[in-house]
Write a structure and sequence with these properties.
Blueprint lengths: L2 E3 L2 H9 L4 E3 L6 E5 L3 H11 L8 E3 L15 H10 L4 E6 L14 E5 L4 H10 L3 E2 L14 H7 L6 E3 L11 E4 L7 E4 L5 H8 L4 E2 L20 E4 L12 E5 L10 E3 L4 H16 L5 E5 L8 H10 L5
Parallel strand pairs: 1-8, 2-8, 4-6, 5-9, 10-11, 12-15, 13-14, 13-15
Antiparallel strand pairs: 2-3, 3-7, 4-7, 5-6, 9-10
Helix pairs in contact: 1-4
């Protein structure tokens, strides 16, 4: 069974020895491994059941380490690093030749982030190098925002989990691509919104060109095992079903089944969304109904995760 600990020195040593450690970040918990050790990186793919065609994000202690991974750090990248690192922003940059291609999924680009969580910072500083750290969950399932969520995902493993408490942001980082010969692109929406990113960047951000340059771009992702369905008009007949669970974002009618109201504040909602999915998914329900939040920029990342969580398996 997994070991939950707050011993940073122990976790750093496990990573040096080529083992995996689940670490907290301000967004979600990540399944960390030495980004310069191919055997350790491949363990991440194997434990998650993640295809090797899906690139990983390298987590760093500070922006100065970026030059050890990126072949070119443009003025655009430096502006975003200065504005948002440490924080929930990942930058996709041209990769140095010595970056393991199992990390980049064979691509000539590498995704980099400096997390703001204090325990992640201490672990990275103690370890001394870069760590790949995709969400610490089975592939496409709900991302974990607590040590308990990670332990549930990998209950049969001997994974070491660094317990840093609940994640404050609760949704994965925003991802911006800054590659030669292309315009800046927003590959994944996070709670760091487009307007703030564009203001710091000094130019517009285009949408993804469709190729998988970074994680979280598949149609179905972040999903519970229970069928999930978003709604804007309340399906009143379903309120009577005791096997139906509900996630609300404001005023909520009474229901026979279990309900969680995450409130009308987008940051508060985002911080609790995955935890609410975990809670309801454990109840053996027939369906989880999720109220669609307002169509506003502040809710863009929530809409993205909700859409992927409700996408049918094909």
């Amino acid at each position: 069974m997994p070991l939950i600990t707050q011993d940073i020195a122990l976790c750093a040593q496990h990573l040096r020895d080529g083992h995996l450690v689940a670490m907290p970040t301000e967004t979600v918990y990540g399944l960390a491994a030495n980004a310069q050790q191919e055997s350790a990186v491949r363990q991440v793919f194997a434990l998650k059941g993640r295809p090797s065609t899906n690139p990983l994000i390298v987590h760093l202690h500070d922006a100065e380490q970026a030059s050890q991974w990126a072949a070119d750090i443009t003025p655009q990248a430096k502006r975003l690093m200065a504005a948002f690192w440490p924080g929930p922003l990942t930058l996709v940059l041209p990769a140095r030749d010595d970056v393991l291609r199992c990390v980049t999924a064979g691509q000539n680009s590498v995704a980099l982030r400096v997390p703001a969580h204090p325990m992640a910072q201490k672990l990275l500083r103690t370890f001394g190098g870069g760590l790949v750290a995709p969400s610490a969950n089975r592939y496409m399932s709900i991302s974990p925002t607590s040590a308990g969520h990670v332990a549930k995902q990998f209950a049969e493993s001997e994974l070491t989990i660094l317990d840093g408490g609940p994640c404050q942001v609760g949704l994965e980082s925003s991802i911006v691509s800054l590659l030669p010969g292309d315009c800046p692109r927003l590959l994944r929406r996070g709670m760091l919104g487009r307007m703030r990113l564009q203001e710091a960047l000094g130019e517009a951000l285009e949408e993804s060109a469709g190729d998988v340059r970074a994680p979280g771009q598949h149609h179905r992702h972040y999903a519970p095992t229970t069928q999930a369905q978003g709604f804007s008009q309340v399906p009143t007949a379903a309120l009577e079903g005791k096997a139906n669970g509900w996630i609300w974002c404001g005023q909520a009618p009474s229901s026979q089944g279990p309900a969680i109201n995450l409130g009308a504040d987008p940051e508060q909602y985002a911080a609790g969304f995955y935890a609410a999915l975990y809670q309801l998914d454990a109840l053996g329900l027939q369906c989880i109904y999720i109220q669609t939040p307002p169509q506003q920029e502040a809710w863009a990342a929530v809409h993205d995760r909700l859409t992927r969580a409700c996408h049918s398996i094909t």
